[in-house]
Structure formats: structure tokens, C-alpha cells
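User: Please predict structures.

Assistant: First:
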Amino acid sequence: MKKIKKYALILVLSFASIFSVGFVDNYFEVSKNLDIFTSLYKELNIFYVDETDSGELMKTAIDAMLESLDPYTTYIPESEKEDFEFMTTGQYGGIGAVITKDGDWVFVSEPYEGFPADKAGLIAGDKFVEIAGKSVKGKSTEDVSKVLKGEPNTSVKVLVEREGVNKPFEVKITREEIKLNSVPYYAEVSDSIGYIRTRSFTRNISKEVTEAFNELNADNQLKGLILDLRGNPGGLLNEAIRMSNLFINQGKEIVFTKGKVKQWDKSYKTTNTPLDTVIPLVVLISRSSASASEIVSGAIQDLDRGVVLGQRSFGKGLVQQTRKLSYNAQLKVTTAKYYIPSGRCIQALDYSNRDEDGSVGKIADSLRTEFKTLVNKRTVYDGGGITPDIEIEPHKYSNILRSIISKRHIFNFANTFRINNDSIPSAKTFVVNDEIYDDFKQFLNDKEYEYETKTEKTISSIKEDAENEKYFDDLEEELEALSLKMEQSKNNDIERFRSEIVEVLEAEIATRYYYQKGKIEATLKHDKELASAIDLLNDLEKYNAILVGDSIE
């Protein structure tokens, strides 16, 4: 009973702080509903037939309440605080490895180069059998991650099973502070054209981009720059402003926020001397470029500073603040919407209108409002995400490739390849030749990777309709022949889609030898969007025509 009263008091005090901000008009409704909730919670604890977990029950209630709002207002209990801090700082205490689950076991998916797991000799494919003397079988990646993380300079012993090694062996790993760079890769990708890849907008991303640019520019005076924000989910708002400021003059408004609490509305302007305001700039975005990535790409587009290329971005134009709660918990709450220089908000109009990958779904033109860029008065639109100046259809994997990836056959083949081959050429030059591809096909011989094509689904649907409409007896021979022909054709998919399978194989194998940098280098060899950006920067007439709004044939 005391515990119930304590929860009620916490909730009342929390709402009292809301009243102080000026929402006294709702006092009666808030008090009434708090009283109902407290009464219900008390009755459940006293009379429910089974024992209840008070903490789990409360978290379920909180999560359900927040789910009725937007997707970004979330409750962060103390147990998840470290994961949240990693998202904003890029730092945590642990072994420095990506882990994944396959069946009952958790495996090393990728050790970070130079971090404890790598130093201790762990490699991709290593299976955790025990951690700190306790079996890992049946544990989730979250369970294992919590045990592997910890204070720097503490150690953890793991029992590991590895392909090609007769029996499990023990490894002692000393945890460190893991700090992942926000810029995992940069290079000169063509004659005097620089490329900078970003991961997320954690602290110091603008500093890392500055260092990368200066190094590239020092080696060879750059005539163009490609800033890659694809897959970058965003992060800190202040870093988005600083990043924009690298290429935009001092004193320019990058974003302004508006919310319910008017005194929190704010304009964010560039305050520093820019890095470079004249170099031709192409920004790459994708459907998973979100939040801070959209501020940067949107500001560069609205101020006519560079060309945006790729796919329409995610469409997250909401600002969150973290509010401290009792017992080290936190609330990440949406407090405002942000608007970029043209005045448009890039938040998707409907939270539920999303594609499978979470990005903005199709929006009717009638629901979108037209805006103008500030310098050249080009037309841009709100309604969800940043629409690129040059749109490129994303590559869609074939059914067979999606299947063999999901079944982890490429991952496992790369592990076996690494064990059997001490070295490969550089990631930039390594190719999966006929011999390696034949080995991969042999590797797949006893593996399951069933998949159903759209054509097969259509044939099945025709069969079903024919049966329902009493035509099947007349068409059975032709339909069965069509099914057989389709099956024979499908058996050749491993060759038909060889080129795209090879691309993924090369990247996965390169990761085993050259870590994340190798994976990026192997991927860039086949990157059509990067190639388009390079072509554009080599054609300044076309580049400038896009910026002034001329149509390009």
C-alpha cells in the first residue's frame, strides 16, 4: 500500500510541475484521471488473481500512453539510460563489438577495429558459449549486451566457440570506453573530389567533418565535395547547426522551432566563420536520413548552397527534450516542430502513413504546400522529408539475395572464407572472382533459402481463381507447365542475380579483413549514387543549372 501511495505522489508531483508552466485550465481533468488511474492500480495490486510485477505493469501503462502520441516521445527507465546516452554521445563502456543472435546463440557480428574485442582476438562468427561463467544459450542480444558492457578497466571472461577450432576457448576482455567516430570514412573518390561519410550526429561530428575536409583539401585542392548523410538517423540539434555552418555563411538561420510553450520557441543561426562557402557540394540522402540529417540537407537546399541527391528523406521534423524523472528515469518528449530556412516543416503529415522501412509514405500533392528557396527562388515542398534535387530510385534486392542474407548464408560464408584465407587484396581492389563465386554456390548446396517470387504468387492466384470459377480442369495442363517452367527459370537465379550477390559478398568478406572501413570501400565501388554525384561535380554547367532552377534533360 505504501508503494502505491508513493507512485501516486510521484505522478501528482510530476503533474504539479506541468501546472507551473501554465496549464492550470486542465487541473480538474488531470486530477480526476490521476485519481482513476491510482485507484485502478491499487485494485489490480490487491485483487488480481496472479502476482504482478509493479515496475513492469507501470512501464506497460506508460508505454501505452506514450504510444498514443508521436513515435519519438518515449520513456527511458534507468536500465536503458546507458543505451540512450550512447545514441547522443557515441560513447559507452564495453568490449566494442556488434553482436547478433542466430537460433539459441549469440555471435560476434563485427568487432570494432582497435577496441577490446578486436584486441582480445575475437572475430566475426565467434559464438558466445558462456559469459562470466554463465551459459548464453537462449539469451537475447539485449541480455548479452548488458553483461558485456560495464565500467572501463573492468574485465569479463567469455567462453567462445569458433569454426575450425576443436573446442571452446576462454578469452579475457578488458572493457574500455568505446567512442565511435561520427565520420567513419573519408577519401578522395575521384580526381580532386572529396567524399565524407557520416554515421550519426553525436558530439563533435562537425569537428570530425572539419578535420576530414582539411586533410582532403591539403592533399589535393578539392574541386568538389560529397557529404554522405545516407542512413544517418540524426542526433543532436546543435551539431546539425554547426555542421551546416561549415558550408554556410555566418548569421544565417538554419532552423527555428515552434511548440506549445512559446518561451521555448527558438531560432538557430550560424555563429562561426564557415569552412568553405564556394566549393561545389553534393549531399547524399536516403529514406533513412532523418532529423539532424534533414536539417543539414534541407538548409543546404533552401539556401541554394549545394545539390541534394538520392531519395526523399525520412520525414522527422520534431524536436525532443529529455526531462529527468524520479529514480534516474527520463522522459524523451516532443516539445516542438522544427522549420528550415524556407519556412517549411519536414515532419511527415501523418505519423502512421509510413512505408515498411518507416520512411514517409506517398503524400498527395494537394496536401503539400509550396515554398521557395531563399537565394534562387526554386520551388520546394513540405509534407514529409527532403525531396532531392536529383532523385535516384533505390536499388531493390532480388528475392534470392534477400533470402540468402536473411538466412545468414553470406555472413557465414565470409567467416569460413576468412578462416581459410589469411589475406586478400585491398578492399578497393578485391573482387569475388569465378573461383570464389563457385565456392559460394557449393557452400549453398546443402543450405535452405526458399523464397516465393511475385510471378509464383500470381500463378498460384490464377490457379485458385480457376478452381473457384470452374476453369481449372481446362487449364490444368497449361498452368502446371507454367509452374514447371517458372521453377526451372528460378533455379538459375543464383546466376541471373550474380552481380548484386557479388557486391554484397565483396563487402562482407572485406569486413573480415579491413573492418568497417573495408566494408565502406568495397561498397563504394558499386555505388551508383556516388557515381552520379561524381559525374555532377565534373559537370559544373549542369550543377549550376540545377541550383538556379533550370530544367535538365
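Second:
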Amino acid sequence: MSPAAMTGTALQELLDQRIVVLDGAWGTMLQSAKFSPDDYRGDRLRDHPRDVTGDPDLLNLTRPDAVRDVHRRYLEAGADITTTNTFTATSIGQADYGLQKLVTEMNLQGAQLARQAADEVGGRFVAGSIGPMNVTLSLSPRVEDPAYRAVSFDQVYTAYAEQVQALADGGVDMLLIETIFDTLNAKAAIKAAHDIAPQLPLWISVTITDLSGRTLSGQTVEAFWRSIEHANPLVTGVNCSLGAAEIRPHIMELSRLAGTYTACHPNAGLPNAFGGYDQAPDETGRLLGEFAAAGTVNVVGGCCGTTPEHIERIAAAVTGLAPRPVPARQGQTRFSGLEPFEIGADTGFVMIGERTNVTGSKRFRRLIESGDYQGAVDVALEQVRGGANLLDVNMDADLLDGEQCMTTFLNLIATEPEVARIPVMIDSSKWSVLHAGLKCTQGKGVVNSISLKEGEGQFLDQALRIRAHGAGVVVMAFDESGQADTTERKVEICGRAYDLLIQRAGFAPEDIIFDPNVLAVATGIAEHNGYAKA
């Protein structure tokens, strides 16, 4: 067994035994130290042209003694897990300071400092902190251009991949993708984690931005969970933005849904008029103790405004309390946009809005070809208001750049809440267009479609990529010999595809939709006479 696997097993055993304690806020501790500009610059950045004061992750390089001291103080207060001081340590996050070239070193040193402190005490764990970035893939920073994005999915993925590699090299025990306000950003981080360090357990933590119960990009807690469930995280949680009292309904909801260990590390109350936090350690400890006693959490800790004193009270409050039993996984078909959509035994027909398909709607095609995307969004609105449960989007036409049209349209409808609340079915005969659509979808959508037409190799490659983005898939009854036309061929091809998807691509059965082919009947050709029966 590898060292990472042994650590993961030890952590899981601890989670099964008792409630585990995370450390508290890093920003609060570092700001209270009142570092000077010289502390941030050190000798190596004495002549750096930009102001770097206030960059917390830079202190890993210029004041490692202070960073190590924060780790020690939290561990002495009773934390079982300490987080690396790397919350903004990506090339995108560090661009404001002009420090992109130091990102690998910041993360490597941050992980090593945490590792040293944890090993000094013994029996403690290190979580590599991966923050949300200062850009969003689901929202436009330009009010006048809602389809615009400051960065692409691939750029966000690349930035996270660099961070993940350095954290892994530095010896972290798990990766904490935290303070998620845009699930599409989180999907890029998840994919980077799985590609770069698949041996490390994941902890994925969402932030609910206000009392509406939604993320900044509009998702409910359940929609968020459905969107990231494919990552198979060890821990799923809620952190930041709210104090413990306000965060309670959201951790209760996640606890009900998630077949993982659950975590909660709230702020020390709501911010005051000066942006500070006033909740005393005793109150934070009492509230999180109530969460634990109610059986809603496996891990507790602190976010903004919390200190070692808060962690000490939290650790005392949960001592001796039983951890939340992890519920069995539910095998139900569930997709999501901003809101969840479930297909159950009594759902009835599922209505798919097909008018946002250039091959099936002349009106929609004319709008897209003429560049009238607002008119195209109006078509989507009509579909949703008409009762569509999912929205099929297809841009396959000779005169169109399918990838660009798919990206532009999906970016637009992501900012239209009435449309964005339902899942998207990304529809194309071209893999490049399907892949482009996956990079624009923060919810759990469906890809339509893949088949065995080009053989098992291509089928599995595409299936694995779809799975990496968390989508469901439509499978056509089509193989190397052509379309399935008889009952026997339909069953054979669908069965073969099912086995490949389950056994080799990691799909859950409920995420697979079969299209067994409805072929033309009454054509007058004798060979077609059995099509209706088949």
C-alpha cells in the first residue's frame, strides 16, 4: 500500500471513530500579526515592481517562521487537520501581484511547512487548501456582454493542475477544494485533482453566499451536490460566508443528501460594519457542538474570524460525541442546473425541450446563423415555460462553428436564471462540440450522444471524459456494424455498452440513458417490416 493510501485509510478510520477537528482562519491570524511591507517582500522581492503587501501565500516564502507558528498554534488547540496557507496560490490568483512564477514554490513550501508542523505533533493530517479564484466560469464580469468570460475552463484547469502538483509534491494528505461559489470552477479543480493526484482523497466544500440558500452562481445545495457527486469525495462540506447559526439549514440539507462524510467550518458569525467578526469562541463551540449532537457532521472547524481559541472550544464541544453515520448511496437518476431534477418511479414522461436545436427548428437555426442570440435565449425561455425538464442544445449545421456557437449559447443561458435552473442536454454528432459544451456547464447535464460506432477505444475515451465532467450520457444502439435494427441487436449493443460504462468508465447505472433506435416503418421495403415490433 502506498503512503498516500495508508494515510487515507488512517484518516477514514479516524472519521469513523469520532468527530474530527479542522483548524481555523488563516487570514485572521496573518492579518493580526500586522506584517510590514518588508515582511512580504523579504530579500528576494526587494525590487519587485508591484506592491505585494497583503498576499498571504507569499509569506510561505518570506516569513516561513510565522506560517509554521500558525500551524503549531492550531494543532496545539486541538486541530486534527491543518490546512496549507495556499488559498490564493494559483497563477490566476497571483497575477494581481505579478507572482505567477512563484506559484509552484508557494504551494510546495506551504505544504512542507504544514507537514513539518503536523509531524512534530504526530497523528495529524494536512489538507492542501485550494481556493475559488477571483474569476468565475459561470458568470460574466461584463454586464453588457453576458456571454463573455474572463478565462476559459482550460485556463482554470491548468492553473489548478499546477497547484495540485506542488501540493502533492509537498506531502499533503488530502486536497481541500473550498469556499466554492461557482461549481464550474470547482469542476475544473476536481478534474485537475483527479488527473494530477488521483491518490489523494478530496474534500469539497461549498459556500452559500446569503440566506437564500444558493451559491453566488445560483445553485442550491442539492444542485451543487448532484454536480460534484461524480468526484467521489471523501468529505463534502459547507464553509465561509455565514456564521454557524445561519449555516445550519444548509449543512443539514447536505448531511441528508451526501453519501460521504460531511464537514462544516463557518465564519465566527456574520461580519460587522467594519468587515470583522465578533462571535466569541464559546458561542462558536456551542453551535458546532449542537451540529455534532444532532448527527449532521463528521468534521468541524472554523473559517473567517476564527482563531486557535475558537478551535479549542470547538474541539472541547465535540469531544465524546458520535460522528454522523454515512448514509448508503441512493441509486436514483438525478440531474441539475441551478436546481435539481430527479426521475423517479412516479415522474411520468420527462419532457426535453428540443426547439433549441438547429437541426429540429428552422426558427432557432435562423436566429443562431444571424447572430441573434438574445432571440435564441427567448426560444429557450419558451421551452422552459412550456414545461421542459431538460433543454436540448444542438449546433450541428454546415455554416456554423459548432464549438463557438455551443459555448456562446450555453454561457448566455447560464446567466438567465429561469433557463439555467434546469439541466442541459448537450447534443451533437461531433465530439469537439460535446466537449466544448461540457466545459460550460456547472450543473449535472447529459451528453447526447456516444456510441460504439468507432469501436470500444473511442467509446471509452469519450465516456471517461464525460464522466470527468460529471454528466450523464445518452448511448445510441449503434456499433461497428451499424445501427441496431432487430431486438437481438438492440439488446446486444446496449448490454455491451452498459458493461463498458459500468465496469471500465465508472458510470453509475442511473446516469445512463439508452436510445435503442426508432427506425422508419411502412417504407415498403420488406427488410423493414419488423422495425416497429423491434
